[in-house]
Amino acid sequence: MIAMRLREIAAAVGAPFDPRFDRVMIRRVSTDSRDVSPGDLFVAIRGECFDGHRFVAEAMSKGAAACLCDEVWNGAEKSAELPASFRCLVVPETVAGLGRLAGYYRRHVMNVATVVVGVTGSNGKTTTKGMIDHVLRPSFAGRAAPKNYNNHIGVPLTLLSSETGDRYLVVEIGTNSTGEVAALSSLARPDAAVITSIGEAHLEGLGGIDGVAAEKASLLHHVRSDGLVVVNIDRPEIHAHLPKEVMPRLITIGADPSAKFCVADLSGDLRRTEFTLDGRFSIELPLPGVHHAANAAATFAVGRWFGVEPQRIIERLRTFTPPEGRTRVHELDGVTVVDDAYNANPASMAAAIAALGRIGSARRVFVMGDMLELGESCADYHLAAAASAVRAGIEVLVLVGPAMQVAASLIQGQAGDSRVVACASAEEARELLASAIEPGDTVWVKGSRGIGLDRVVVDLCKRYGEQTAVA
User: Fold this and answer.
1) What b/e sequence results for 323-339 when a residue is b if at least 16 CB atoms lie within 10 Å of its CB, and e otherwise?
2) How much is the pLDDT for 361?
3) Which residues of the chain have pLDDT under 50?
4) CATH, range 4-91
5) What are the Cα distances from residue 51, in Å, to 28, 70, 230, 368?
6) Looking at domain 328-469, does it have CATH number 3.90.190.20?
7) In sequence order, which residues have a C-beta less than 8 Å from that of residue 377 and are 6 or more positions away?
8) What is the pLDDT of residue 466?
C-alpha cells in the first residue's frame, strides 16, 4: 500500500476525524487481527460467525495505527479498557467503509502507471489470475489478488495492496447475486478485462444462464475506453451482452472458429494439456484438463497487450503451477490424487469428468461432491453429472452430499461396470476411501467448497505420504 495520512482515510470513508492524529500515517490495511503489523489500519468486520470488533484491543497491542469500526461498537460495545487516545474511525458499516476507501485509493492514490487487470467468469478466474501473474512477473513489478480475494472484502484489499512501483495489478472479481460484478468493477476501474467463461454457476442468485452472462459482462462497462477486453465466446449467451459500441481492443477466445485467438488441436493427459492457439502457437500446460486452454488463451492475450513476446509467454505457461484445489496433481506412494476440490458447477464438473475419462491407470476414482447454488434444476444437474461419469467409464464413483446421494440412488441400476457409492459427508467419504483405494489408483476430488472435500485431499496426502506435487 502507498502510505496515506489517517486524515485522508477518514475523509475517504466519511468518518469524523480528531485533528490530534493529523500526523498519523497508515501503511497497510488488514481485516485479520492475527496479521496486524505496526502502522496498519485494522478494519473490524462483522460476519455471520465472527465479529472483528472483538479483536480491536488485540490489533492495538500489535501496533495498529488506527481501527475502522462501526457505530454499533462505538455506541454500545466499546471496551472500557481502550484508552481515550485510541485512534478509531467510526462509520455506519465497516465493509462499506472499506469499499469507499478502496475506491478512493484507486482513483486518487494508486500510481497511474499501474495497469489494473480485472478477471471474472464462471470458471477459471483464480487459475487465469495466477497465469497472468506468472507470465508478467519476470518482466514487470506487480502483484495479483491472493487466494480467493474476489468479493466485497477481497477486491478492496487487493486494490489497497498495490505499491508505488507496481506495473500491474490483477484483480479477481466474483459474484453470487445480480449487481456484484458491476459494484466491484466500479471500484477496480480496470484497464483490461477478462471473462474466462460463462456457465451454470450461482443460478440461485443470477436466475439462469442469461443472467450469468449479463452479470459477467457488466465488468466490460467499467473498462477504460481504450483498454483491453478479452472474452470467451464459446457460450452463445455472452454475445447479446457484449457492449454495442466499438471496442478497438476486443479479443475473443475459445474453441469457436470465429474467435480471434481460437483454441484447436486439444490433447492431453494427467500431467499436461497441449493445444494450438490462433493456428500459429503450440502451447503446453503442465496440468490436466483441456478446459485450461481457454485460461491460457486469455493469459496469452493479456501478455501480448503488455508487450511480452509470444515465445516468452509460451515458456512461462509451460512452468505454471495451479493454485491448491484447482487440478493440482499430487503423486503419492502408489496413488495419484488430483486436487480439484476448491469449487464446482456443472461446466467445471463436466470438464473434470472428461479429463479423468481420458486418463489411463489401474483404476479411476472420482470423488464428486454436491454443486451448490444451482436453484430449481439442482437435482437434474447432479443426475446428469453422475450419469456422465458412468458413461465415461470411470471405475469408482464416490458421490458426496445430499444432492449426490439422490443422484446415486437414481443411477445405481444403470451404472454398468462402474461402482457407485453414496456418502452423506466428506467425513464419511474419508472413511470409505481409507479402505477403498488400491495401489495405482488415480483419485480426482471435486465439489463445491461447502461440501469440504479439501479435507479428503489432505487426508489422502497424509495417508499415502506425498512425494511431490507435479502440477
Assistant:
1) bebbbbbbbbeebbbbb
2) 65
3) none
4) 3.40.1390.10
5) 20, 11, 39, 34
6) yes
7) 203
8) 58
